[in-house]
Amino acid sequence: MSGATVGFVGLGAMGRGMAGSLLRAGHAVRVWNRSPEPVAALVSQGAEAAGSLAEVFAADTVVSMLANDQAVEGLLLDPELLAGAKATLHVNMATVSLALAERAEALHAEHGIGYVAAPVLGRPPVAEAGKLNILAAGAPELLDRAEPLFAAMGDRTWRFGDAPRQANTAKISTNFLLACAIESMAEACSLAEAHGVRPTDLVEMLTGTLFPGPIYSGYGSMVAERRYEPAGFRLPLGLKDVGLALEAGAARHVPLPFGGILRDAFLDALAHGDGEKDWAAVAEVARRRAGLPD
Amino acid sequence: MSGATVGFVGLGAMGRGMAGSLLRAGHAVRVWNRSPEPVAALVSQGAEAAGSLAEVFAADTVVSMLANDQAVEGLLLDPELLAGAKATLHVNMATVSLALAERAEALHAEHGIGYVAAPVLGRPPVAEAGKLNILAAGAPELLDRAEPLFAAMGDRTWRFGDAPRQANTAKISTNFLLACAIESMAEACSLAEAHGVRPTDLVEMLTGTLFPGPIYSGYGSMVAERRYEPAGFRLPLGLKDVGLALEAGAARHVPLPFGGILRDAFLDALAHGDGEKDWAAVAEVARRRAGLPD
Amino acid sequence: MSGATVGFVGLGAMGRGMAGSLLRAGHAVRVWNRSPEPVAALVSQGAEAAGSLAEVFAADTVVSMLANDQAVEGLLLDPELLAGAKATLHVNMATVSLALAERAEALHAEHGIGYVAAPVLGRPPVAEAGKLNILAAGAPELLDRAEPLFAAMGDRTWRFGDAPRQANTAKISTNFLLACAIESMAEACSLAEAHGVRPTDLVEMLTGTLFPGPIYSGYGSMVAERRYEPAGFRLPLGLKDVGLALEAGAARHVPLPFGGILRDAFLDALAHGDGEKDWAAVAEVARRRAGLPD
Amino acid sequence: MSGATVGFVGLGAMGRGMAGSLLRAGHAVRVWNRSPEPVAALVSQGAEAAGSLAEVFAADTVVSMLANDQAVEGLLLDPELLAGAKATLHVNMATVSLALAERAEALHAEHGIGYVAAPVLGRPPVAEAGKLNILAAGAPELLDRAEPLFAAMGDRTWRFGDAPRQANTAKISTNFLLACAIESMAEACSLAEAHGVRPTDLVEMLTGTLFPGPIYSGYGSMVAERRYEPAGFRLPLGLKDVGLALEAGAARHVPLPFGGILRDAFLDALAHGDGEKDWAAVAEVARRRAGLPD
Questions:
Q1: Residue C171 catalytic?
Q2: Where does the 3-hydroxyisobutyrate dehydrogenase-like NAD-binding domain lie (chains A, B, C, D) (predicted)?
């Protein structure tokens, strides 16, 4: 096996685009996924199929993009796997908790494997296009080493420090801001509607003036039009992300009052059966509180 | 007095730029202000000084840009003044409460004067440059009549409906969203800082990716750098605007949970002596809650 | 008119019981009410009917028990009335805002009339029985002078200081605590019910152990049994009282996070048509948030 | 070993009083504790010292009173221990999460051991006196069997249903109400103090009228006098209990807005170094928010 090979774990909606970007940039990629279907698709693009996680960790560098803490914990934080690894760098691009980030870093250090956190901003089509924003942290020499991979998968890499968890903090903070923006617009649109202003008019003005950009524009129109399906990002995942922020706050005694409101709003949405909708559906909670017509 | 003359009341930091824009666009403008200094400056630009509010209301159209409800109530909602007015249109561009907007509309109607609400987005230099965004509502024919004035003062006019209060609703909702954005960034930056991420790094990434635009960029850097002076918009004015949103919500039974948090945060900031700072200083409350170094 | 006569203004559900208590204790009472019916009832108990407020204020001491700020402001804070008064003491027993309490004190001082605030705890039957708790504040010699009246109307008088507004503060704080207790039980009962515990079992245990007393017991059973009618204290009055606390907090920059939650919960209840129910019906908001069966 | 012997695990401040009560009531008690000191004290009162947890579970009935989920999980939810147990009833009197309660019940059922949850209300001196209030749930025949033990340890047993977790729900709800009462008084006392009313006067009146009982009286005076040491119940334990309520809420999608406020207040208190104080010290957060003198 050549040292230039990149091991890649996790071919979900995001991971398959990212692995594809690596292939298109000329990297040799050895892929593994819990379910076999996405593996075949990547192999048809030139990837090598790994027979086991151990084979992935026989590559010099491993990139992983798993769904959450549980998946990372269950699949990768395996002392046996790490003890037998030839890899000297693991780039974890998942959105995970700070507690997991710390455990992961310590465990990799024990086994002499470099560990870098590099969660991303961007939806699957952006991953597909290799245009992600990558939030990275870790030892500078490791980040330098990962740079060609980042260049293949992303538009730009933002560095947040020497400790991997700093990148996870940045990602968690960003998702917290997304949720705050959605709830803000939800409350503003309910206020507007209750006073006879069309939410679509409000959002059009807002995004045409002070609040340009994909979040206010994208979620703003979903909220204003009450269009929550198909779900780009499901509501329970939103609650999970708010939970990551609250947990990160608790670990350092940082109160997050907006976070508490968000948590309750997402629970309220789930209590009313909106778990399969986009997290923008939290706006229905604001409407229900105000008794606006269903 | 020619029918083409525009009466203008309120030459504060915003009003003087707006009146100047009208002059530059070739309108004849008759100005009045409580204190005389700004009048002289406008006269030197070609305006006529009114000797009284009655002289202002002798013009066909009156534009007013006063500081708040109290000023509008005290100066303009004067039955005697309105009864004697020749003006047939009053364009009120101040940010006022919905309750005042309703009283103003009713009182003008009693005296047969058209009333339009047209609060604006933009700071004094934008007013000076005639590049404001104007949020307008009122009878369509009145809005059409005001359009040449709007064109002189603003970049774009956004119409929100036939009832003047709809424009005030849009403005109040917008300011509410500004306050929400500031508090969101304050909480996110405290979270980041507590975990060793530099808030300036976080804000640079955010504004370079998902949150472009003047609000996240301008207030984001103020929050991240803890730079709250000189005040572009003083904290007590921020509390006043949050209060307008809460009051508007209460009038239609619209709970605004983020609004409640904002109110407490602004009170906390005032309790700690930050009343002369920019409203971005509410971020210090988030830092204090988390025990971050002063 | 004898110096021993007490003028009494405001014969609502509370006032008529209080005036009756004064009569039963042997005081000469001259009564006035906006609507005439309650006057006749008191006259049949031995009271004298006043032909005007001026006649009430011709008595040595005036006791007033009006519904709210508006009534006090409109009827009693009348410079002409006070200028012509022979009364040297006005005991205001209404629950009013601190702002009104301050205006009232200042205006009475201008006219050389002693002013005491003495809001009460207790429902109409308690007023009827002369068993109220009286929260009093004002100059000690005035409080001493009012003591025989307090003794007739109440079980106990609690003194809070020399400035009348201190008694209003105590009353506003007490009502705030009532609202907090109701919301606390509402949330706890929703939590219990969602996990299969009968709210009535929970409340029975709570009031039998750590939370005895009329509030937890009375409101607890209303919440647990979802019994909100007939209304002992209507929901909009509860919102008004929460508003008095928030306003009092704002005046001294005291954030009240529970107050913000209460405000939203009461608005939510009003938005859902519960304005005629007892304020314990705010518990339905907690149930609705959790999606509990209607 | 006689069938009448009761195994007892956990001789902390509460457990030693409870085991002592069992002894005084004539029960044969075999005790185990992680650290040996309390064992000796109980042995001197007539208890038998168990050499291992297995010896405890050789008794017919086991009572456990451990500190938290971690202790219960680590010591008692041990499949080997339960598989070898002769005990047919385990009465778990600790305050634990609902998630743990469910796992515990299922695991005991697998091994054919009856499981009852019976958390208690009362501080150590009350445990010592055998006057606890016991919140119990489980199969009726198991509760009946435990009744003599309950009678020895408590004043009264409150039954909440057939599923053990119902008792845990009742306990978690009760502790949530305690925290709400403390925060309510903290806010009310800050409001009062800011307006010149002595918090001690306010609390004296409150507890003498509408809010009798140990909670408002005990915590009220601590808050009013700012007396937080010695700690009867440490602040981090309060945060843990609030967390149990929030977690229980989340499991059934029950928003708890007061809970979110409490969480932030406790974090704020910890951020300011009050972790060794009584949880009533959360009142300092309310004072700090309002800028009241330190």
A1: yes
A2: 167-285
What is the percent of chain A with per-residue pLDDT over 90, rounded to a whole number?
Answer: 98
Active-site residue set of A: 171
The residues pairing with B278 across neighbouring beta strands, listed in sequence order, are B234
From the CA of A230, how many Å to the nearest CA of chain B? 21
Terminal C-alpha separation, chain B: 60
CA distance B266 to chain C (A): 9
- For B271, name the nearest residue in chain C, comparing CA atoms only: C253
Determine, for residues A265 and D255 on separate chains, whether the beta-carbon distance falls below 8 Å. yes
Residue D272 is nearest to which of B267, B271, B291, comparing CB atoms? B291
Cα of D204 to nearest chain C Cα, Å: 9
Interchain proximity C158–D205, CB inside 8 Å? yes
The domain limits of chain A are 6-162, 168-289
Between A45 and C3, the higher pLDDT residue: A45
**C293 near A CB under 8 A:** no
C interface mutation test: which of B266, B267, B268, B282 has the most C CBs within 10 A?
B267
Residue D227 CB contacts under 8 Å (≥ 6 apart), including other chains: D221
CATH 3.40.800.20 fits D6-162, yes or no: no
CATH 3.30.479.10 fits B168-289, yes or no: no
Q: Among residues 195-234 of chain D, which lie with CB inside 8 Å of chain A?
A: none
Tell me the shortest Cα–Cα distance from C2 to chain B, in angstroms.
46
Chain C partners within 8 Å of B271 (Cβ): 253-255
Indicate the burial class of B37 (C-beta count within 10 angstroms; 0-12, 13-18, 19 or more). Answer: exposed
Compute φ and ψ for D22, nearest 5 degrees. Answer: -60, -45
CA C232/CA C284 separation, integer angstroms:
17
C86, C131, C171, C240: the catalytic one is C171
pLDDT digits (tens, 9 = 90+) for C226-268: 999 999 999 999 999 999 999 999 999 999 999 999 999 999 9
**pLDDT averaged over chain A?**
97
Q: Do domains D6-162 and D168-289 have the same CATH topology?
A: no
Q: Is the pLDDT of residue C1 over 60?
A: no
Closest alpha carbon within chain C to D159: C201
> Which residues on B lie below 8 Å from C254 (Cβ)?
267, 271
Q: What is the pLDDT of residues C43-65, one digit of tens each?
A: 999 999 999 999 999 999 999 99
Residue with tokens 């992961």: A104
Per residue, what are the HEC states of chain B? CCCCCEEEECCCHHHHHHHHHHHHCCCCEEEECCCCHHHHHHHHCCCEECCCHHHHCCCCEEEECCCCHHHHHHHCCCHHHHHCCCCCEEEECCCCCHHHHHHHHHHHHHCCCEEEECCEECCHHHHHCCCEEEEEECCHHHHHHHHHHHHHHEEEEEECCCCHHHHHHHHHHHHHHHHHHHHHHHHHHHHHHHCCCCHHHHHHHHHHCCCCCHHHHHHHHHHHHCCCCCCCCEHHHHHHHHHHHHHHHHHCCCCCHHHHHHHHHHHHHHHCCCCCCEHHHHHHHHHHHCCCCC
Among the partner-chain residues C208, C258, C291, the one whose CB lies closest to the CB of D253 is: C291
**CB within 8 Å: B176 and A195:** no
Subunits next to D (3 or more Cβ pairs <8 Å) are A, B, C
Residue A139 has a pLDDT of 98
Q: How confident is the model at residue C2 (pLDDT cuts 50, 70, 90)?
A: very low
Give this prediction's pTM. Answer: 0.96
Burial group, residue C8, by CB count within 10 angstroms (0-12, 13-18, 19+) = buried
The whole-chain average pLDDT of chain B stands at: 97
Contact of B58 with B1, CB cutoff 8 Å: yes
> Cβ contacts (< 8 Å) between C256 and chain B: which residues?
264
- Note the pLDDT of residue A4: 75
